[in-house]
């Protein structure tokens, strides 16, 4: 086993590209193999209405378990997958799997509003991304309004014109768009106002800030900004009753976080939903 399996090395590689080419190639090979061997799988984290605690849906989150049982966090392997192009087939698989999972839950009678899926900029830029989304919806039978694509704020800043067009085209399908990690990038406000977006996700960093001297001031700003723009607001990383209380008071509509539930296996969803009621 190489040192590269340790989390720190991955982080070093992905964040600083400081690893040897040979080692990098090997990691990519492992990642490709992992995909083939179904060692990549999805976890689902509940999103709730902060007013009445109703479960709105789930965010699908990718996981990689290596042969020796180690968990590699997505922040460490998604840049790798983006670099190798694997993210295109991987992302397609995520999208389809999430749609099928959601459809199954609806078929079983669970009253949910959405399944949220993270989309990489590389994926988004593929000319056939629209077709991919359309076929995932069609093949799973999921009505488009149940699907939410999470794009990051940094994506909105890359390649402006084309991005807006692609997003508008996707919106014609009837799905929902959320801006993930909102507040961590620097998108222009006039641009944001023009984008066909439904929801802003307050980044976990600003929820964590509630515990510091600064308090919830950024979370408050984002909530107010979102309201002004007519958008729904969801907070991620809610870990304590204090976070929940403060966000509720600010008028934040929705949330997810360890306080409510950690990301869970698909098989854990149904028992969890029953217990939550
Ligand atoms: P994200 O989309 O912002 O996802 C939220 C992250 O915060 C998840 O980490 C989630 O497990 C974590 N989280 C949620 N609530 C809490 C909490 O209360 N406390 C703490 N400490 N963490 C919390 P995860 O699953 O490690 O994902 C990290 C990032 O990887 C995601 O950030 C997303 O950008 C990316 N990612 C995950 N799955 C996919 C995927 O299928 N495709 C793409 N392109 N990116 C993905
Ligand atoms: Mg996300
Ligand atoms: Mg997020
Ligand atoms: Mg985040």
TrEMBL record:
The chain holds residues 465 to 741 of 741 of the full protein. Keywords: Phosphoprotein. Residues 24-277 form the EAL domain. This is EAL domain-containing protein. The keyword Phosphoprotein applies.
